[in-house]
Design a protein that fits this description.
Layout lengths: L30 E5 L2 E4 H15 L4 H24 L6 H19 L2 H8 L3 H26 L6 H9 L8 E2 L2 E9 L5 H19 L4 H8 L3 H4 L4 E6 L5 H8 L10 E3 L2 E11 L2 E9 L5 H19 L5 H8 L21 E2 H7 L17 E4 L5 E12 L2 E2 L6 H24 L5 E3 L13
Antiparallel strand pairs: 1-2, 1-13, 3-12, 4-9, 4-11, 5-8, 6-7, 7-8, 10-11
Helix pairs in contact: 1-2, 2-5, 3-5, 6-14
Length: 447
């Protein structure tokens, strides 16, 4: 059997996305398999099979469905182990994710009626579906983590893993870039912070005197997503908002307006709309303090002068980063780290998303950019200069250039092997029954 590896992304053995498909024709549902006390429905198989058909067409339909069923059985074995081992999954964390998905669904479809037409489920039914899948997903992942937490790979094992791969199965790695940055984010002046507090205090007073919070949010809030809805955020549970906002919101009574709250995003006032179990619905007005144009100009001029000093050899980039940069990576010489994989390498897609205005792909190695404006993670104005450190041309994956990615893939493979061995042993202790439609499946990992 040819081995294949997706080196860019190490996928968990039993990881599965949470999704509810659109209603598709007249699907007659039923029980396809029983694993312990849990069932796998025909509709569970069909949802995943539909994704395979989109990618591969309808060929080999039976074997593809069997492969889907095998993964679902493996997941249910982990759910069973999680239940037997009393692995804790709280209602709060299940509802947190369920509410997140439901909020996204309502945003996409516009109303509960449209959502029901698209999915075939009423809102409460859909929530129950999400809760069931999310609880099982969390249980299976935690059980898997318990089983594989001690799995490691040595450099020799990484090399052996790489050498075991068919050359044609190695992916082509795209052009990638390593670079460093020096960031200057001007501080918000106290006068500006006072201006925002005063503005929010006036808006809060208007609400107290009877004006509609929703109208003022539409007019003044700088949160574009909620402002068009009168500041309404929809139902959320603990853990979904930044801590300062969450603490203030959950302390309110329905209709009550909070004092002015400062978070990393800016300053807010919050009004509680409704409390439902462990979730609340609230609206807010956000005002974001602005850096003064003069401070931004000074930051740009400072960075341009630093770039001149570095280019002339009077100052190293690393020294300048340590001395002047306000970013978290200042202590490491400004080395940029890709948040997607934790490595210092970025492909064109990541650059376009995170460093779109700099023009990194067109730079020469060692070249230093001029100061470029950007928004920080907290949506604050700042400037940065970039030094391109290395270019990695597109190539087929190899140990020299792609060791971190191959190591991740080797670790994932080692965990998969341990999971397969565990599943073969554990399934002998669990009741498993297949419907007649799937009794002829040949499973790769369970037999």
């Amino acid at each position: 059997m040819n081995k294949k590896v997706f080196i860019l992304i190490a996928v968990s053995f039993l990881a599965a996305p949470i999704s509810i498909s659109h209603a598709q024709g007249d699907l007659v549902d039923g029980v396809a398999a029983v694993v312990g006390r849990n069932i796998i429905k025909y509709s569970d198989i069909e949802r995943s099979y539909a994704q395979i058909r989109l990618k591969q067409g309808a060929a080999d339909a039976f074997n593809n469905r069997c492969a889907v069923l095998e993964n679902l059985i493996l997941a249910q074995l982990l759910v069973h182990k999680g239940e037997i081992d009393s692995i804790e999954v709280t209602d709060d964390e299940v509802n947190q994710y369920a509410d997140y998905y439901l909020k996204a669904d309502l945003s996409n479809y516009g109303s509960r009626e449209a959502l029901r037409e698209a999915t075939g489920f009423a809102y409460d039914e859909l929530k129950e579906q999400y809760q069931r899948m999310i609880r099982n997903n969390i249980l299976s992942r935690r059980a898997e983590m318990q089983l594989t937490h001690d799995v490691t790979v040595t450099p020799r094992q990484v090399t052996d893993f790489f050498n075991s791969l068919e050359p044609d199965s190695l992916p082509m790695m795209p052009d990638r870039y390593e670079f460093s940055e020096i960031v200057i984010e001007p501080q918000i002046s106290e006068a500006e912070r006072d201006r925002v507090r005063t503005q929010l205090a006036e808006l809060r007073e208007r609400v107290i005197k009877g004006e509609k919070f929703s109208m003022l949010a539409t007019l003044y809030s700088q949160d574009p997503n909620s402002a068009k809805k009168g500041g309404e955020l929809g139902f959320f549970s603990r853990g979904q908002m930044v801590s300062e906002f969450e603490s203030a919101a959950f302390a309110l009574k329905p209709g009550e307006v909070s004092p002015i709250i400062e978070t990393p995003l800016g300053f807010h006032i919050i009004q509680l709309i409704e409390r439902r179990g462990n979730t609340i619905n609230a609206r807010h007005i956000l005002i974001i303090p602005q850096v003064s144009p003069d401070d931004l100009l000074r930051a740009r001029m400072k960075l341009d002068s630093i770039a001149v000093e570095i280019r002339s050899g009077n100052l190293s980039f690393e020294e300048a980063a340590s001395k002047y940069s306000t970013a978290d990576n200042a202590k490491t010489g400004g080395t940029a780290v890709n948040p997607a994989d934790g490595t210092p390498r970025f492909d064109r897609t990541a650059i376009d998303q995170l460093y779109y205005a700099v023009g990194i792909p067109g730079m020469e190695v060692g070249e230093i950019s001029n100061a470029t404006a950007f928004k920080t993670e907290n949506n604050h104005d700042a400037y940065r200069i970039i030094r391109l450190d290395r270019k990695h041309a597109a190539h087929r994956a190899n140990l020299t250039d792609d060791y971190d990615n191959i190591q991740n893939a080797a670790l994932a493979d080692a965990k998969q092997k341990k999971m397969r061995q565990w599943a073969k042993r554990y399934m002998n202790t669990v009741y498993i029954h297949l419907s007649d439609d799937y009794k002829d499946c040949v499973f790769k990992n369970l037999q």
